[in-house]
């Protein structure tokens, strides 16, 4: 059919700098030389941080260097907070092995070993290291000294992180909190002494990388990272935003974000303390991203995860208030949890959150029943390590909260708003638990561009448009072996959302011919001639299917 349609066509014309952040010196500063891990944090002095970065690069303390040293199994285990394979892989005395033990495994290093890898005196003065054993982990495996002043320890976790264009970055977080949540240090000596667990700052986890991957990376004048934590979203935003503002309720998080930006060589951000949109008042932005404390929990024990509002009110409030903080055409992208309330459709419930004048794309990636959800976050908080009766009481509290709110399950996913100003906004809420291709940001942007196209093109305009089949779409025919005709045809994307959709033979033939050179109506006329169908009737019944293929990204309109 494709060749026949091509032969029937006639030639077509060618397609025609941010303000300095408020000092936090009253809250954080260089760690004292007191032989214990301090609640105070390293200095973010740019000159000293640049020299530390040079040392990390010289030792190949990067994401690629770490993978090469540890090997894939140990590298993957480290991401699961399992350290034994990495310890076995770092028994030598090379600078890279020393840095891995210091900053990732929280093990002591001999002064001479550390000096071979770092400007050690400057790191001691700036508070990246402290002298002596804090008694957390054993000092086995330490060479270059017998303990005491001959031994140094890291005060923070420094984790190599690869940027989207191959940049070597480092994410700074609390010891023991790079991944796995506060449960990794629950009640133990591995974390920062004297720091309230509610104030701990986590590093990179799956939620962080998911949000970074779905964010639209169009160059913008201004971006806001709301609830910055260790600063990973601000770090990404600094690559394509002229001005970056980052906020957090936790002042320690703001300092960690400053450390992450400085150590990674990124421009400084405007760091502001406060809750939700309060720190930015009526300022507006081209891009807002947020990995908020979205966990639906009874109370607010842990600042990094518990929002302190009832149910999913925190995520609802952010969505409802976002339009007033966006410039025209701006996007707000966040990760969220939401309740599945008995007797309500979750799609309708979340769609009601969307403010007037905004398009929205809401994608539910996972659903857990209330028992699974409670168990997940009880483990995250280390409650499974408490006395059985205490664990049971907290479990009961979670289930009481869900019962009071008629919550039968909890959904997790992402929400993207775009301030279109349209009187007929596109609001799509869908469930998609299948694998996707990251980074998804370019596909998120094209999703909204296609919605603009569809709402401004009636059927006649649609049939006058030329379309191009998206990259890496394949056709599958499903039917009994040996049958003359397939039972149905499936188009499948191997990019982006990796969708699959059933089409009839006309739809499959139409999609296969779309190369941007012939209007949709003329393709349908040629197909009608081939299959012996009235072209008028085919034009009447086909636009709905074409709209579906455009909406789902199988077809892209060609400009001009």
General description of the model:
The chain is α/β, with parallel strands linked by helices. Residues 1-38, 134-141, 143-147 and 180-190 have low confidence and may be disordered. The radius of gyration is 27 Å and the shape is globular. Helix 1 (2-8) packs across helix 18 and helix 19 (520-531) crosses helix 20 (535-541). The protein has 21 helices and 19 strands. Helix 12 links the parallel strand 9 (285-290) and strand 10. The longest helix has 17 residues, at 388-404. The chain has an 8-stranded mixed sheet with strand order 8-7-6-9-10-12-11-13, sandwiched between helices.
Q: Report the total helices.
A: 21
What does the main sheet amount to?
8 strands, mixed
Structural class: alpha/beta
Q: Taking Cα atoms only, what radius of gyration do you get, to the nearest Å?
A: 27 Å
Overall, the morphology is globular
* Proportion of strand residues: 15-25%
The percent range for helix content is 25-40%
Distance between the termini: 26 Å
Total E-strand runs = 19
Quick description:
The protein has 560 residues and is α/β, with parallel strands linked by helices. It is built from 21 helices and 19 strands. The strands form five sheets. Strands 8-7-6-9-10-12-11-13 form an eight-stranded mixed β-sheet, sandwiched between helices. Strands 1-3-2 form a three-stranded antiparallel β-sheet.
């Amino acid at each position: 059919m494709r060749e026949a349609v091509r032969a029937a066509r006639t030639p077509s014309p060618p397609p025609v700098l941010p303000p300095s952040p408020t000092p936090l010196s009253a809250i954080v500063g260089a760690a004292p030389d007191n032989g214990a891990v301090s609640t105070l944090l390293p200095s973010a002095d740019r000159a000293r941080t640049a020299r530390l970065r040079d040392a990390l690069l010289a030792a190949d303390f990067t994401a690629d260097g770490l993978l090469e040293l540890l090997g894939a199994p140990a590298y993957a285990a480290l991401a699961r907070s399992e350290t034994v394979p990495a310890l076995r892989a770092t028994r030598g005395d090379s600078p890279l092995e020393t840095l891995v033990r210091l900053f990732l495994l929280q093990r002591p290093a001999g002064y001479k070993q550390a000096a071979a890898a770092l400007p050690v005196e400057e790191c001691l003065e700036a508070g990246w290291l402290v002298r002596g054993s804090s008694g957390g982990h054993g000092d086995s495996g330490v060479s270059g000294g017998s303990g005491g002043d001959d031994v140094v320890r890291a005060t923070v976790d420094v984790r190599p992180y690869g940027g989207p264009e191959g940049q070597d970055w480092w994410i700074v977080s609390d010891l023991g909190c790079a991944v796995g949540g506060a449960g990794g240090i629950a009640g133990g000596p591995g974390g920062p002494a004297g720091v309230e667990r509610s104030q701990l700052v986590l590093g990179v986890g799956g939620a962080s990388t998911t949000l970074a991957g779905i964010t639209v990376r169009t160059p913008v004048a201004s971006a806001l990272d709301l609830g910055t934590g260790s600063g990973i979203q601000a770090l990404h935003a600094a690559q394509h935003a002229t001005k970056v503002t980052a906020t957090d309720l936790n002042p320690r998080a703001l300092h960690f974000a400053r450390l992450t930006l400085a150590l990674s060589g990124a421009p400084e951000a405007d760091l502001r303390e406060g809750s939700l949109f309060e720190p930015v008042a009526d300022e507006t932005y081209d891009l807002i991203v947020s990995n908020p404390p979205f966990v639906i929990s009874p109370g607010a024990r842990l600042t990094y995860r518990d929002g302190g509002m009832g149910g999913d009110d925190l995520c609802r409030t952010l969505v409802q208030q976002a339009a007033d903080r966006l410039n025209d055409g701006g996007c707000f992208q966040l990760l969220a949890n939401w309740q599945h309330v008995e007797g309500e459709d979750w799609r309708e419930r979340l769609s009601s959150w969307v403010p007037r004048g905004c398009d929205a794309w809401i994608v539910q990636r996972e659903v857990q029943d209330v028992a699974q959800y409670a168990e997940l976050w009880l483990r995250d908080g280390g409650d499974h390590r408490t006395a059985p009766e205490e664990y049971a009481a907290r479990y009961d509290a979670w289930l009481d909260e869900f019962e009071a709110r008629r919550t039968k399950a909890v959904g997790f996913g992402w929400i993207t708003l775009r301030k279109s100003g349209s009187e007929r906004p596109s609001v799509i809420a869908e469930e998609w638990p299948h694998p996707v291709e990251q980074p998804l940001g370019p596909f998120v942007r094209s999703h909204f561009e296609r919605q603009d196209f569809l709402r401004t093109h009636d059927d006649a305009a649609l049939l006058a448009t030329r379309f191009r089949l998206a990259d890496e779409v394949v056709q599958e025919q499903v039917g009994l072996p040996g049958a003359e005709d397939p039972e149905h045809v499936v188009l499948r994307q191997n990019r982006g959302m990796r969708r699959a959709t059933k089409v009839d033979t006309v739809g499959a033939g139409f999609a296969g011919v779309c190369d941007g050179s012939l209007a949709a109506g003329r393709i349908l006329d040629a197909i009608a001639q081939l299959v012996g169908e009235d072209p008028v009737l085919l034009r009447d019944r086909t636009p709905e299917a074409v709209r579906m293929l455009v909406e789902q990204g199988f077809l892209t309109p060609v400009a001009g």
